[in-house]
User: Fold this.
Amino acid sequence: MKERIAKDLLKIKAVFFRPEEPFTWASGIKSPVYCDNRLTLTDVEVRGDVENGLAALIREHYPDVEVLMGTSTAGIAHAAITGHLLDLPMGYVRSGAKDHGRKNQIEGRLLPGQKVVVVEDLISTGGSVLEVVEILREAGAEVLGVASIFTYGMKKGLERLAAANVVNHSLTDFDTIARIAAEEGYIRPEDVARLIAFRNNPSDESWINGNGGNA
Assistant:
């Protein structure tokens, strides 16, 4: 599963490596990778792999789930399609409460005590998905964990999830995609160490000059 999804994401450039010309994140960090999993929705074959993969992952790891909740906005479509496959209700959590009407932040029916899985497209530092988990917990939900398409596996993200007692299961991860990218010629084999160095410490830009061995 990890390798199939990695190949899918590389094929449609949902994950795109450019170690020689790094992207700049909003935080100012230089990154060798660009990730836009929204592209999975516009490729029918890849979308099928992703949604069936999420359904299988949820069946395996969260068999007691009662409701899926997507993150806003990237997780909404995936929660809806996966919810359809699993015959489960779904909703989503807004990034902020509405300033009109019922001023909802949680959209869809959620009853106290219901067992919820959060559907997310991407886990990096974990901040945004943990905000969603906290909102759901405050509403009385029992959050079983997170199901995501891709995770960087960054130390900060892993530590944040562990501290909040949140489990995440992803269809694929940074290490797998980097390896497949090298095997299939998207990047040079020697670039893999640079990519892993970035993943291990994004604020250390020494990987840009090819210094990946010390990470």
Remarks:
- Residues 44-61 form the longest helix (18 residues).
- The longest strand covers residues 142-151.
- Residues 75 and 120 are 5 Å apart (CA to CA).
